[in-house]
Structures are given as structure tokens and as C-alpha cells.
Amino acid sequence: MKKKHVAAFAAVWTVVVAAVVGVWCTLALAGSNAPTRLVSQSDYDMIERYRRLEEVRSSLANEYYIPLDDDALMLGAIRGMLTVPDDPYTFYYTAEEMQRSNESSEGVYHGVGMVVQMTEDGSIEIV
User: Fold this and answer.
1) What are the extents of the domains in the chain?
2) What is the pLDDT confidence band of residue 57, given thresholds at 50, 70 and 90?
3) 125 — phi, psi (to 5°)?
4) 2-27 burial, b if ≥16 CB within 10 A, otherwise e?
């Protein structure tokens, strides 16, 4: 009689363990539908640093009432970032803008290459 109880307990225990392992494997495989990539720590840190930027871009792309161009969003983000130093000589050119700038500045120049401007107190400043 005791052997029958031990055998029944072993059978039930085996079924429970098999069920738990089966559920665990199913959940593990179901969660791995997305392809995984190994990245270096520095790349992972960069991904984490720009996660908010991507969340905003994704929200705009998915929820804004009209379609938005990803390149225009990226250009806006870059230009917005470059306003932080509050430096009039810090800016970003696209390839086309750079080409136009180079074309417009070709030629012969004379002079000492300085800028004269009026300061807040009314004096003249040479930069």
C-alpha cells in the first residue's frame, strides 16, 4: 500500500514539474520574438541616453494627426540641441545648406576679417 502512495506521489510530482517547465519554456520563447543583439556597454549606454528622444519621435510618428517626416524631426532635434550653448556661431548645416554656403562664399576677399558690433552699453566691440 505504501509503495502505491509513493508511486502516485512521484507520478503527480513528475506531472507538476513537467507542467511548470513547460509553462516556463513557453513564456521564455514567447518573450523572445524580437531578435536579440549583443552590444557593447558603450553602445548600450548610448541607446539608454537617447531613449527619450526615440520615445518622443515614436509618439509623434504614431500619434500626431498628420504624418511627419523622420528626417525633418531629426533635423529639428539637432538644431534644437545646438541652441543650448546660446552661441551664434554654433549651428548645423545639412549637406545642401553647406554646399550653398560654400558657393556663396567663393570669391576674393579683402580686409582683416573682423566684425564690428555695438555692445549693450553703447560701446563698439571688434570681434
Assistant:
1) 1-31, 47-101
2) very high
3) -120, 135
4) eeeeeeeeeeeeeeeeeeeeeeeeee
